[in-house]
Amino acid sequence: MVKGGQHRCHDQTYGCLHAILQRAYEDELIPANPCRIKGAGRPSKRRKPKPLAPAQVIAIADAMHHQDWAIGILLGAWCGIRSGEMRELRRKDIDVDAGVIHVTRGV
Fold this sequence. Notes:
Elements: H1 6-26, H2 54-63, H3 67-79, H4 83-87, E1 94-95, E2 100-101
Antiparallel strand pairs: 1-2
Helix pairs in contact: 2-3
């Protein structure tokens, strides 16, 4: 069974496979492209995310067992920092006095 975020991955994988086999067909390496599912490889309909209310964000952060994870939840929600950017943050990147976070790296 395919879960939410996996649809996009499957669409991209099928699209890549189709392109590879289409090239093989055009180069006369195979008699036909076996990828023939109509509509496959096209992006799936994306659902609109439903944002959390501020109280819900705080409740999630409060429920974290590790305080660093709570900080990550708050930075992601209030500052829009992506997961990969957050994982690369170092103490030197945060200037508490100026109220600035320097995001210069990402995973």
